[in-house]
Task: structure prediction
Amino acid sequence: MLDRIKAAISRRSGLRPTETDAYRLVNGAGDGLDGLVIDDFAGRWLISSKEGEDFPQLAPELGYRALYAKTLSRDERSSPTHLGGEKVAARFPVQEQRLFYWIDFQSGYSQGLFLDQRLNRQKLRELCPGRTVLNTFAYTCSFGVAAVSAGARAVNLDLSRNYLEWGQENYRLNGLEPEKSDFIYGDVFDWLGRFAKRGRRFDTVILDPPTFSRSRTSGVFRAEKDYGALLECALRVIEPDGIVLCCLNAHHVSANEFRYMLKDSLPPAVDLRQMPMPADFPGSDYLKSFWAHL
Ligand SMILES: C[S@@+](CC[C@H](N)C(=O)[O-])C[C@H]1O[C@@H](n2cnc3c(N)ncnc32)[C@H](O)[C@@H]1O
Result:
């Protein structure tokens, strides 16, 4: 197993974008290591492993300063535990293509940045200068940071005040003024309705919902079933020549099925361009991303 881990790590050396220290080092079956994932957050490595599997013993000589682990489990959603190297007691910044994000190993199951969205953040930076961006399901506002750093105006919307505060900290970390963006605490369906009623329009809307969510205002959302309804609400707040990023995180829905799901809700002439997953996620296609150009 150690040889395969070393081989996966060495394959990454040519793939890592410049000025990026947050990267996937081992991607399960795609690296011949089914069930094992290792992410590098600026030298703090996080091993994720299937329930019931032992974590591999890794020596610091492999290149980490801290080694943590968590179990990939439906029920257990706890913070990573310390396995070796330094203890990470406080949040720390990572860099991705000249932008910085706070990572927290004490914050529970998610550490603050979804590495699999790197290419979409990069694409947004190319597409959005001078545009308005509505970042729904904003989490720690990494899409908002990417948009504003590229010269866009952004509205970040999420059902968690903590994540929105984390998002504001991410802005400050990059020298961006959170006061110049909106951080709206609330339900996406509710706010898309409010924006539509007020005639508020955006040039770009980011849709990257969780697979399942429950809100007091709009009830239960199941991405596979309700994506069309979500997209239709988003289309009511988009400028006529706008762009919608549609992401779906689902293993058992194929990219084609998702494409047809989107086509059902989009006007006929819309140009749908698929974004692949980053090269450090070989063999994975669970994240389906389409940029819909109206
Ligand atoms: C998968 S994360 C989104 C990741 C984010 N797009 C990114 O790339 O960093 C899901 C987020 O959606 C938020 N959320 C879940 N249901 C919601 C709802 N009904 N309205 C607003 N936000 C919601 C959660 O609080 C969480 O921050």
